[in-house]
Write a structure and sequence with these properties.
The chain is an alpha+beta fold. It has one domain: Beta-Lactamase, CATH 3.30.450. The chain has 5 helices and 7 strands. The protein has a 5-stranded antiparallel sheet with strand order 3-2-6-5-4, sandwiched between helices. Strands 1-7 form a two-stranded antiparallel sheet. A hairpin with an 8-residue loop joins strand 4 and strand 5.
């Protein structure tokens, strides 16, 4: 009977360890390189960027591989992504009352300059004094992101890295 008193304590310990954030230095597995790239990028540029979607070309078309909103992963590319992939020109949607950020989608290349897809960024209007300045800033952000992509294949690789704490 003495053992039954310890069962709730053990159950509580298991519950807490299953929902607690990982300790500093703990290994985080299963995240793709693309998702880690998106998460780190948004964290680094949170004063300017509110969301990112990274869509990749494949033999079967184009689909979102990583995004700030997990519900977007797996979505097929629409005209917003297909246009910049086809033309090389960014697709720019100005802020509105319903969506108070610039939605800028640009063709995405790896660090070697090969076209691999498109990236959409929601950029706060404060990133520049006017539309042209915000688009110029989006191009700078794109260059930073592309420099971190050695190849399209690398984006799909699972990573094991130290877990980050906010």
């Amino acid at each position: 009977m003495a053992m039954s008193r310890h069962v709730p304590a053990v159950a509580l310990l298991l519950l807490v360890t299953s929902i607690a954030p990982p300790a500093a230095g703990a290994q985080k597995q299963g995240e793709t390189y693309a998702q880690r790239l998106v998460n780190d990028f948004v964290r680094r540029h949170s004063s300017e960027v509110t969301a990112v979607e990274l869509a990749i070309l494949s033999d079967s078309g184009c689909a979102t591989l990583a995004a700030t909103d997990p519900k977007d992963v797996g979505e097929k590319c629409d005209d917003d992504e297909k246009g910049p992939i086809r033309t090389g020109q960014p697709d720019v949607e100005a802020p509105s009352k319903a969506d108070p950020v610039y939605d800028i989608t640009q063709a995405l290349h790896d660090s070697g300059g090969r076209l691999i897809g498109a990236v959409g960024m929601d950029i706060k209007p404060q990133a520049g004094p006017d539309k042209a300045a915000v688009v110029a800033r989006a191009k700078e952000l794109l260059a930073e992101l592309e420099a971190q992509i050695p190849s399209k294949e690398k984006l799909s690789e699972r990573t094991t890295s130290e877990a980050r704490t906010p």
